[in-house]
Amino acid sequence: MPVWQGHTPELRGKVRARAAELRAGFEASGAVAVECPILLPAATLLDLYGEDIRGRAYVTSDALRGEQMMRPDFTVPVVQMHMAGGAEPARYTYAGEVFRRQEEDEARANEYLQVGVEIFDGAQPAQSDAEVFTLVRAATKGIALRAATGDIGILMAAVAGLDTSDARKAALMRHIWRPRRFRTLLDRFAGRSPVPPSRVALLAADDPFADAGPNIGLRSRGEVEARIEALRKDAETPPISDRQLSLIDAILSVRETLPFALERLRDIAVDLPSISDAVEGLAARAAALDAKGVDIAVLDFEAAYGRTHMEYYDGFVFGLYAEARPDLPPVASGGRYDALTRVLGRSAGRPEGIPAVGGVVRPGLIVELEDTA
User: How far is 251 from 292, CA to CA, in rounded Å?
Assistant: First the structure.
């Protein structure tokens, strides 16, 4: 439902006031308040997320500016603004509406207020992760929330270290945020699931274009031939070993409090050295969180956390949940998105990017939880 549907003027004012209070708190920590456009070029978001974004964003068109999308979050415009000339290190905060289509649950808001903080600082990433987490948690102080954390960078490092082709690694990387598709590809690349019969027939044909009829699709014959050649090369690639597949499964099954999760991941790293740096990055973050006063002994860590709703994150991820209200989305969430700054930095002449991490809070949910406490 819309952010104000069914809300009294008093409640609207309450949510607005809480949003202003949250942003002021982030400003007091050293963040600079910024404003972002509501309409964003659709091409940018489609390049980042593919056509899937159309299922979650409101799309419109402009005769001069082309296809536009209503702001699904603030991170992309803030990164674009910073990469266009922001000083470093930098801290930003913002407050405003975001817009998300809801196709499965009409009770979930399709427009709501979001307040956030973003840190661009390459000097001490572990400390920046801990700072964002503690800032966001402090912003929700007084509400009983469970913290969930994870690190997508560990799974990405595991995929990068597989003994398989670059093409297969790239396919798995693209679908890390789509767990079902990721598992389907992983099983296929390991030889655990059959190749679709249509593909088998295509690759076995001496001339795949025989009796194909006229070319009426959007792809040229050359593009189709290149795709068939790529499929033939893939068919010749040896399967991913059972040993490496079991190590991926072991990573995805890690769900412990942070100290035990770190111990388990270090054990896995002995057999899969490609994750060692990412695991030690997790250890550095744990130390930084501990130094900030976070009780890491009871902090939940799940290696698979964030894979279904945080698709531009590539490292630390976190969410704060009201355990008494499992029907609610996260009251706050965030994470690290270094790769996003490299992608968006290309058009600004800064393809090297800059390490960055951020978090957002939903003031409407805070007010709802406070009023029902």
Answer: 27
**% the chain with pLDDT above 90:** 58
Buried b (16+ CB within 10 A) or exposed e, 236-256: eeeebeeebbebbebbbebbb
Query: Is residue 1 over pLDDT 50?
Result: no
- Per-residue pLDDT of 189-247, as tens digits, reads 998 887 666 666 656 666 666 666 676 666 776 777 677 777 777 777 899 999 999 99
As given in the structure block, the two tokens for residue 350 are 């800064």
**Element (H or E) spanning 92, and its range?**
strand 90-99
One-letter amino acid identity for 183? Answer: R
Q: How much is the pLDDT for 2?
A: 44
Taking alpha carbons only, the member of 209, 270, 196 closest to residue 235 is: 196
Instruction: Specify whether the CB–CB gap between 117 and 133 falls below 8 A.
Output: no
Amino acid at 25: G
As a whole-number percent, the residues of the chain with pLDDT over 70 amount to: 88
φ and ψ at residue 8, rounded to 5 degrees: -75, 160
Interatomic CA distance for residues 71 and 76, integer angstroms: 9
Mean pLDDT over the full length of the chain: 88
Asked, as a colleague might, if the bond just before 89 is cis with ω within 30 of 0, I would say yes
Query: How remote is the C-alpha of 332 from its chain's centroid?
Result: 14
> Which residues make Cβ contacts (< 8 Å) with residue 349, sequence separation at least 6?
none
What residue has token string 């009426």? 216
Neighbours of 332 (CB within 10 A): 27
The rounded distance, in Å, linking the Cα atoms of 243 and 356 is 34
